[in-house]
Amino acid sequence: MRPNCPDSPRRPRAPDSHFANRRKLEVETSFTVIENIQQSTSQDGLNTRAAAANEPAKDSLLLILAAVLIIVLLNFAAFSDSLRGYFLADDFAHVDYLKSVFNGHAHLLWKNFYSNWMQTLGTCFYRPLISITLASDYLFWGANPDGFHISNFLYQTLSSVFLFLSLLCMFPALDKRAKFSTALLTASLFACHPLHPEVVSWIIARVDSVCTTFLFLSLWLYLLSRHGAKKRSGATQVLSLIAFTLSLMSKEMAITLPPTIFIYELINHAFSSSDHQKNKSDTGWRAGFVEAFREALKATKWHVLLLLLYLGFRAVVLGTLFGGYSGSVGEGLKDSLFRRWFEGGSLTRLLLPFNDFVTEPSDKIRLVFKLMTGAALVIAVARAILSKRKISAFPFSISPFLPLGLIWLVIALAPTVQVFDITAILQGGRFVYLATAPVVLIIASLIFGAGDEKKNHGHISLLPLLSTALAALFTISYAFIARQNNQPWVEASRGVNSLRAGVEAALTGRPKDMKVALLNLPPHQKGAHMLYNASMFGVTLKPPLTKEDLSERIITFEPVTFGDANLIGRTRLRNLLADKNLAGVFVWDSTEQKLLPMKGWHSIALCAPRQTFELAGGNAVLEDANQIFQSPAIDAPSTDFDFLDVTLKVEPKDPDKKLPENAILVLGWAGATHPIYAQERESVQPLKPGENTYRFSVGELKSWVGEGKITGLTLNTSEKPCKINVKSVRFINADDEIPTLSFAPGTKTYIDSNGTLYINKDLGPLIYDATRIKGAKYVRYEISRPESWFEHYTGTLRDKAPSDKAFDSGKLDNLSSTNAVVSLKALKVPGYYEFRILAMDARDKPLGYVSNPINFQVTPAYFKRKNADKNGVVESK
Amino acid sequence: MTTPATAEAPKHDLSRLDLEPAKLDFLSVKTQIVFATVLSAILIFTIFWPSLTIGFLHDDWLHLDYVARAVSKGDWHDFLANFYSNWGRSDLMLSYRPLISLSLLTDFLVYKTNAIGFHITNLLLTSCCCLFVALIASELCGPFGNRMRAATAIWAALLFAAYPLHVESVAWIIGRVDLLCTLFYLASLYYFLRLKLIEEKPYIWLSVVCFALSLLSKEMAVTLPAVATVFAFLIPDNANIASNQKPWARFFRIPSPLEQRTLWLLWLTLGAFALIRTIVLGSAIGGYGSGGAGGAIVGLDTLFANFANRAALLKVMIPVNEEILPTSKRLMTIGFTTYIAAAVFAGLRCLATPLLTRYFVAFFLFGAISLLPTFQIWNIANNLSGARLFFLSSAPLALALAFAFVPSEDSIDKISTKLSATVGVGFLAFTLVVFCALSHSNMTAFSGAGEMLKKLRQEVSTLHQQNPERRFALLNLPSDFHGAPVLARPQYFKTMITPPFSVSDEGNNFDFKAQDTNLPNEVAKNNQSPQLLYFSESDLKLHPLNGSTDSSANTGFSCSFNGIKDCNISPAATKITDGKQWFVFCKEQPQVVTQVNSMRLYPASEGLQVFKPIKEINPLYTPLVRIKMTVEANQPIDRLLHLVRFKWKQKNTVLSGEKTAPIVRTGDNIYECPLLDNKEWQLGGPVEGVGIALQNSPYYVDVQSIEGISLPECVPDLLKVSGQNQYRFNVKNVRDAAALLVLISQPNTVFDNLSDANALKKYRNLQVTPQEKKLVSQEPSLTGNVQSWLHFQQTEGNFNIPPEVYNDGKTRHIVVVALDRTGNMIGLPSRILKVN
After folding, report:
1. Does A676 contact chain B (CB < 8 Å)?
2. Distance (Å, rounded) from C-alpha B75 to C-alpha B81?
């Protein structure tokens, strides 16, 4: 069938005069071609192909299957490494939960349907379906992570496929070839999107992929009911609503579906009627819009109704309309709202999804991505000008997918307002999982446009060729970067496994009362989550993930939940080193992904702590950025000291120049575990003019304490060239400035391996001592807000003043006690809290530093008892 | 509606029009091919012109020996043996290549001992290979019409001619193994492809005969039937897939009956060859070692690992001899530009004409399949040694590049054709220039090798003329020059200095000594006659081995690094500081910090060398060095050890003059450096200073002392008890020796240093497990070469070799190593005895 045949029944619209001229030209060209036998023979097939190209091709089942196969293969190409992954971070909480579910507590699953998800403190979500998917994996695979990862991979694949099918059903009036290409490219890029490793490789991040899978399924079914056979319209509509319900039960993001459908209906109406409306007046246009609005509202009514029902039910179940994160995490998110959205390039990462640890900022591939995006825009402009199809609102042609993508992007990002943040290491990629669909839809619609561009008869013209090439380049680049971005997750899985194996090896063959201390759990590997606290790690060390329960035989120092994992209570460690039951102390090396023994810890424990240690000074000129000032060899135990006081004077080499205000002083150290100086073992302070003493609070840093022995120091400044004159360097043991605080030995209540006390009565008995602090008259105590920690606000354990974030505070009259008990009457809700003390003088001024904090969890039983007592009092009255 | 042109299409197949005779325009295949051949031949002679003066190298002598004996002395036995036994009677591999011997004989008959003639033959053979590359390219372009067809053929031939990995095959006379094999291989493939167009039976026989000749040249040709099958199924008859054809016609075609018959014949020929080879050599498959195909199939992982050799693949893409032209980022960028551009072009063209994908798949399979026979030895070293293995596969590479850049089909419009042709030819020209420059650079290795051998020969002749009656023993022969083979084997040396390659029979006056534990004894024994000589690769002269005969004095040394006094430190800009004070540390500047009992060395980015003078010692009698030092780093030390080397100072230069050697970690803060087979150490004369050479890395070293262990303290004694079938061992003097291990080699397997399969190359890699009494090694080839072993828990005594070990009358080697209390090997192996 020739494309220029005027009687062609396959051409949908009547030809205009422009087309008539063009046809004439094409007929003439074709005669020329026929006369030239040599050319016609070689071109024959191409003519047929060109003819086929102009026909509105049917989306044959074979073609759709081939497209689906491509999507699956791209998924595999990008994320196949994840299939052998392990559990990471929050996954462990779920493994523990599933273990309970399958050991006589099946009701816990049901509870998710009418209460907060997993009844977790500090969060407020309604996601019962996620636990069901996890439970089904556990049912088939037990605690084998492979099964969970296969499911994750499946959800990612299904969401990509449903996205493709949905887009294929949209805009019936659009050129089919353009639509198919746009749908395929969108789904392909979604399948191997570099922001998706978090969702695919982190088992619990399936929250997003499960929600999106059902959301796209619902969308597809809805579109089938709208544009498909009318006979089955009702059934598919019902099925769509069921899928929407499942999506709502997976994550709150599903609420974006009804507005998305609504917008689609509006755009579809505008696009499909654009030809007819060209000559209509403004009044007619307005009337058309009102009509379109009504139609869209009518079409989406059931989804909107279902959404309202869901919101009502959720509000009743959770007691709040919004929910989300509370505690320190929630407060932090609130404070950083503007920064997260508009500073640091979070939004840019939607188009340039690079992990700074994986792809250097100077890497040329970033330029490739920018050029690709630029090329997509150029092609879109070229196509817009060349194409005959115009939407009434524009003087040029655009794909209807483009406005849909743009508005959909805003809708998909809206619910993430509270949490949106794509960091430079791509943490938080899961929040924009759904939003990546409109982003790639925009790209695809720019590349393929609305079709119908001018074609050179008999040949493949340059524009579609370039579009296809650009689409291929986009797909390859996305798959390549996705695979690279996925590597940290692969390494994280390997790391957690290696850490578990290392601890197992350290404990194997030791008596059952022997323990090992782990100074630092790896929170993440180049952005991939690993282990944030001891309770997560504890799960890896007990059945079903190990044969023997070793979880009680490790001692850790991480915050109870999220927090600054680099801080440590030095005195707790020092005391532990002297414990006869300690089998070893280990440090996790994130570069080598290996557990390193802390060298010489035993000898440190045997010696009494040194009180002070001083290094002689020296002076030099530091000429350039490569030079640092290095100390002579040192041999000082890292666990003995709280502070490092460095007295020095730094001035620019040029006497006329002043020290800039933002100049900094960098203290670095090397130790027995890491003999070479590296950025991970540095501490920074602002540099001041003249001679000053800088106090570095090194004793609270794991990177300092974990070295065991400090073997050398370095001093560096940001101001070069400069003269540096070190007067003295003193290692300070600050027992006379920091009150001691700990639980009394033999406390009957449970203390976990992380040092957290679980109580259902008042806090105590405690041992504290502030008698060594000169001038101290009494001791002030502070209790944090629930799920909040003082150091989250100041970034240090060494505060010198009371905190304004304290939930409760009070006075302990004695300067020391061995069995103090603190009343918790002021507390309102169960949860994790932090407690610390500070010595005060007679004028109520703080002296020295606050003590190392202790953590405790108040269980609901405490409040039950408190209420019972209260009621009892009332009754007695 | 359907046009009449579509219906008529099959009757006017463009490619058939090429058969019309005598159009002397550029569309004529003949004109194109002649042009391509002439251009590529000119290019080959231009690039490889220096090869004419290289002369004979290395294995050339093995084959020239029997050819010369056949022609000059009428001793045809060894020449004819090539037709019914292992080629050249090589002890390293099994092969059947009589056609090569025949070609050498022909050359010898024409040119006698003049190497230039042999080299001219090599250049002509390469030109012929280019001809067939052009023919194949032209043939494959056929289905797409004539546009740019000639350009594709010419560029394919030119790229093949200039490809820089060809130097080894073209400039080395025996490299013609690959030239002949490839020539007949490509000819056979071309005649097979011709069948698609002209169904004439003579092409069948031409294809089969060429295949047989290719097989008789080198076993690499065994892949031809597979490649022909791939081409038969993938290369389409014409550019159109008619709509009435089956769906699979988009992906492959069914060969015509005549093609099918030819394929059968090719496979049958292969079967026949396998049979003949089995009869002649006893093995149908396998060349090097004893692995064979069986071994390869069992170790599929190993096989995959062999081919997934990243370094070798990089060399295929950027073929540069790193010893001559160190790779730089710029060079890599230039090299990769071509391939990235080719991938983009090929991708675009496949999108425009999906049928072309089948061509690129066919080229890829051609390249991959034709590499498979190299499964045992596939590797291309940094100095391009082994580049010959890719000679055949470079043909599809050249074809793929030409096809990627030159659009020969008519399926894209004129503007696109013009645009892509212009840019594509630009890239091709760029690639050709890069290839020519790299080939020229790579040629210098072979020119240097030729020069080195020429100098050695001159030196030998001069020596012989000055002392016609005196006997000489050479202690080292140059093995290679930047990857280009030189001589290495004594028998080659003998051939070189005996008639007809030498006027007088100098060979009788020269002997060769192996470099092993026995050398010091021989040096001591044969003080004056024959005179010991070594060839210095730095000044290309023969030097007498002076001052090395006194074994009693100056053996062993001890040198402590407790201060910088007398220390020689380089680079001169190294900063030296006192470890008691604060000091400025520069990441870019090497630094030495003095400690109480050691020196702390920071190599920085440019590296650091520190050595101290010692009282002169005789290196022949000090074959082991022990270093006491601590290497500190944030990563496992073993990963960095290749950057830390033992360094010493001597007056004489034997090889390249690099007087450093790698070290092995043998204990906590103890490192050892075995120097028994280090020619530079052993022959370089008295040692005046020792030290450490560090290369850049984030680590530092606290070096305390370096100790030289004298021969008796590290090498066990092994003697045959005269008159008896008994051997005597003594490891009493070896430090920390508590037991002893006697190793007996497999029949006809040698332990000596010249063999590639040297069982003792890996220092300290043998252990007898204390409980199971099992011989273990991390290197399976070590224990694989050992047929039997004896373990003695004593340090002195006699032993007999068990009779069952050598009752087959074959030769074996025995060697003794000392073991410590834990069963680990210590010290060095004893002298090696040959037993029969």
Report:
1. yes
2. 11
Structure tokens at A534: 């001891």
DSSP A708: S
Contact A676 B581 (CB under 8 A): no
Which three-class secondary structure state does DSSP give residue A817? strand
Provide the total of helices (H) and of strands (E) in chain A, helices listed first.
Answer: 26, 26
**What ipTM was reported for this prediction?**
0.74
User: What DSSP state is assigned to residue A460?
Assistant: B
Structure tokens that stand for A528 in this block = 């991939």
Residue B672 tokens, joined: 């050892």
- Euclidean distance between CA atoms A728 and A211, whole angstroms: 61
pLDDT of residue A21: 44
Per residue in B474-524, pLDDT (tens digit) is 888 888 898 899 987 888 888 888 888 888 777 777 877 766 666 666 666
Can you list the positions of beta strands (E) in B537-574? 541-544, 557-560, 568-570
Residues 6+ apart with CB under 8 A from A738: A642, A798, A848, A849, A850, A851, A852
A592 shares contact with chain B (CB less than 8 Å): yes
| Residue in B1, B3, B700 nearest the CB of A34 | B3
Q: Do B583 and A456 touch (CB under 8 A)?
A: no
By C-alpha distance, which of B218, B238, B258 is closest to B96? B218
- CA dist B832 and A37 (Å) reads 80
**Which helix H or strand E contains A207, and what residues bound it?**
helix A206-227
Between CA A761 and CA B124 the distance in angstroms is 98
* Chain centre to alpha carbon of residue A612: 43
Return the structure tokens found at A619: 């002076």
**A614: nearest Cα among A478, A726, A742, A744:** A726
Please tell me the distance in Å from A49's CA to the nearest CA on chain B: 10
B573: DSSP letter: T
The span from the CA of B622 to the CA of B684, in Å, is: 13
Residue A744 DSSP class: P
Check if A1 contacts B (Cβ < 8 Å).
Answer: yes
Answer yes or no: are the C-beta atoms of A153 and A207 closer than 8 Å: no
- Residue A420: other Cβ atoms inside 10 A: 19
Q: What is the DSSP string of A643-678?
A: EEEEEEEEEESSTT----TT-EEEEEEEESS--S--
Work out the percent of chain A whose per-residue pLDDT is above 90: 37
Would you tell me which residues 119-148 of chain A have a C-beta closer than 8 angstroms to some C-beta of chain B?
none
DSSP assignment letter at B728 = E
How far CA B68 is from CA of A229, A319, A348, B496, in Å, comes to: 89, 102, 75, 11
The phi, psi pair for B328, rounded to 5°, reads -130, 170
* DSSP letters spanning A392-425: TTSSS---THHHHHHHHHHHHHGGGTTT----TT
A820 DSSP β-pair partners: A766
| Predicted confidence (pLDDT) per residue in B373-396, tens digit | 888 788 898 889 889 999 999 999
CA distance B709 to B619: 10
Q: Write down the residue that tokens 């018959």 correspond to.
A: B261
Which neighbouring-strand residues pair with A695? A645
Q: What's the whole-model pTM score?
A: 0.76
d(CA B216, CA B280): 13
Q: State whether the Cα torsion A357-A359-A361-A362 is positive or negative.
A: positive
Q: What angle do CA A661, A666, A671 make, to 5 degrees?
A: 170
CA atoms of B774 and A749, how far apart (whole Å)? 56
Best interface-test mutation with A: which of B146, B148, B585 has the largest number of A CBs within 10 A? Answer: B585
Report how far residue B185's alpha carbon sits from residue B208's, in angstroms, rounded to the nearest whole number: 10
> Could you tell me where the DSSP H helices lie in B353-413?
356-371, 394-405
Q: How far apart are CA B710 and CA A704, in angstroms?
A: 46
CB–CB of B261/B277 below 8 Å? Answer: no
